[in-house]
Write a structure and sequence with these properties.
The protein has one domain: Beta Barrel (Porin). The protein contains two helices and eight strands. The protein has an eight-stranded antiparallel beta barrel. By secondary structure, the chain is of the alpha+beta class. Helix content is 17%, strand content 53%. A hairpin with a 2-residue loop joins strand 5 and strand 6. The radius of gyration is 22 Å and the shape is globular.
């Protein structure tokens, strides 16, 4: 009696999990690798140009982790950021092209390094393996509101991410 009951339970579990998997939407891609070119928009059209790379790590269908690293082309300086990005609109699978995020940025200008609060918004093509995007980043908005002598910045990023499967 135990063997047939065990077989029925196992078979039912296998069949029901297959049926549930067919009806469920596919999970978000585990992560994407990307490259970007960026520039500071605070003191001119596009100064402090830098290139770099990033990861986009899906934490949920709408939420992702977003670390980046950049190297300035006009010197030995660097920038590192870490943010959470959220897609508030569109279908439940996170297929909206619009996103916004919040995080932290560290920028090193020669001997000086400085940390900033980071606020970002962007548009990204949400389908396909190659996904172009454009993004505005606002650095130091909270710091500037608290201390009017504080530094702040506006940056424009554009790039391409690749879905790793």
């Amino acid at each position: 009696m135990r063997r047939p009951l065990t077989a029925v339970v196992l078979l039912g579990g296998i069949l029901s999990s297959g049926a549930l998997a067919q009806g469920a939407p596919p999970p978000p891609p585990p992560f994407r690798i990307g490259t970007h070119i960026a520039g500071n928009m605070t003191h001119g059209a596009y100064d402090f140009v830098r290139v770099g790379g990033q990861l986009v790590i899906a934490l949920d269908k709408r939420l992702s982790g977003y670390p980046t690293v950049s190297r300035f082309l006009d010197g030995g300086e660097w920038e590192v950021t870490a943010a959470l990005r959220y897609r508030p609109f569109g279908p439940a699978d996170g297929g909206s092209p619009f996103y916004f995020g919040v995080g932290w940025a560290a920028v090193e200008f020669g001997p000086n390094a400085r940390g900033y609060d980071l606020w970002l918004t962007g548009l990204e093509v949400p389908t396909g393996r190659l996904r172009p995007y454009v993004e505005f980043q606002f650095l130091g908005l909270i710091n500037r509101a608290v201390d009017t002598t504080g530094d702040y910045g506006l940056q424009l990023y554009s790039g391409l991410t690749w879905v790793v499967k």
